[in-house]
Amino acid sequence: MNRSSHLDETQLLKHISLDCVVFGFHDSQLKVLLLRMKRTKDWALPGGFVLLDESIEIAASRVLRERTGLDHIFLKQFKVFSSPDRSNTNPGVQDLLDSGAIDDSSWFNQRFISVGFYALVDFSKAEPTPDLFSDLCHWKSLEDIDLLILDHNQILDKALETLRLQLNYQPIGYNLLPDRFTMPELQKLYETILGKELDRRNFQRKMLSYDILCKLEERKTGGAHKAPFLYEFNLENYGKALKHGFNGGW
Amino acid sequence: MNRSSHLDETQLLKHISLDCVVFGFHDSQLKVLLLRMKRTKDWALPGGFVLLDESIEIAASRVLRERTGLDHIFLKQFKVFSSPDRSNTNPGVQDLLDSGAIDDSSWFNQRFISVGFYALVDFSKAEPTPDLFSDLCHWKSLEDIDLLILDHNQILDKALETLRLQLNYQPIGYNLLPDRFTMPELQKLYETILGKELDRRNFQRKMLSYDILCKLEERKTGGAHKAPFLYEFNLENYGKALKHGFNGGW
DNA sequence: TCAAAAGTGTTTGGTTTACACCCATGA
DNA sequence: TCATGGGTGTAAACCAAACACTTTTGA
Lengths: 250, 250
What we know:
Helix content of chain A: 25-40%
CATH class of the largest domain in chain A: Alpha Beta
Radius of gyration of chain A: 20 Å
Oligomer: homodimer
CATH superfamily of the largest domain in chain A: Nucleoside Triphosphate Pyrophosphohydrolase
Order of helices and strands of chain A: EEEEHEHEEHHEHHEEH
């Protein structure tokens, strides 16, 4: 876009949009980044359109840079949503007209196919920022999310399902946690994503056996009770391990 | 399309196409369905465009019905290919002009985003049929495939990778084999997809333990050596088992 | 009658599960 | 000082890999 306050639709690929399910982890909870539409106050996933010289991956990372201030976000396509009746009218178009971002609604009130991405970010580093459609951007816990616009609930559900399935094949821990973290924190993350409790001792043994963590001398002080050790990921070994996956397979 | 001999581009979604990697299994080999372009004799994956009232899934199954004569094909999206330089010119457009399928090349010489699908079909039931671009449609073994048009090699590679990863989570055996098959045939299929040999006895034990097969009284006669039993899938149990995956996981 | 393929079974070793025990910390 | 959370260890159960033996078949 030339100026961020005005959308130039001649620079955009018609019929194609993208939506991102941005996951963060905070207070032992999985959070998702949502936008509140200016006029209707409905909630939506962050998304955007594709510039003529962009791949959708580049477009998605541009959108997320605008929404979070972060670069090099972990991003993964998971599904294209293309039901013919998913978006003959764009629920945000009136906001765009109101704000002067567009002069004409016709381009936006077409049928759109949306490429779904999920993204993993370090909660503490992201700075949620609304877009032209919205007046608010913030993190919501999964259980606090109810009705989203269009088929965004479906997109969210599918993203979660994919996240669970890919837990053993993607660098999920690495992207969702701060650089240094404790074993109980890592375990909580796994428990939250999987929706079930894991045995503390077996979890630790298994994790360490992958040889992807560096135990630091330092401990996490401040909390009550015994101070747990801090760890960081050994990126080299982590990368190798992910190629094979951590579990199962013939 | 109104008449199969003429493409009406006003009925098609701009900038969006789909390509299918259709897998079959025959002679202990994984086969892929390819088309030969009329003029250049280059090879390509079967693909097509999306009608205004179709989802891409519906479009893909329409395309595959035209290419194989089969309905209800197992189809799965695996990735969107959207590099901006993947298709500013469509290599088949001259064939379309030659054959009178289109009057004007401009619609087809745009940038296209392609949704990649992989499909699994019963080799013995498919009837390969060329499309408007091509004069030949047939099965090729993986090792016999060299250069394909555009980024179709990349699409094929990614499809294979996905197939391997999803082997334990998708009804792959069911869709690639005839209704009744022997245990050695099923094993060969797994070995071919995974690219490695498996122990005959352990494979059989493991497969049977999933409780997804019905052993029939009948044996497969005709071949040399001891006649192996025939099996069929127990669809009910197979469906249940796939929900959890057959292997690994926390 | 014999080589090759298929059915069935056993041994072994590693991995996962389910626990017990001790240590550190702040309320 | 004690409840709570964290670090470490171990026995039992389970599962997967490796391998032996027998049966059937057509050449």
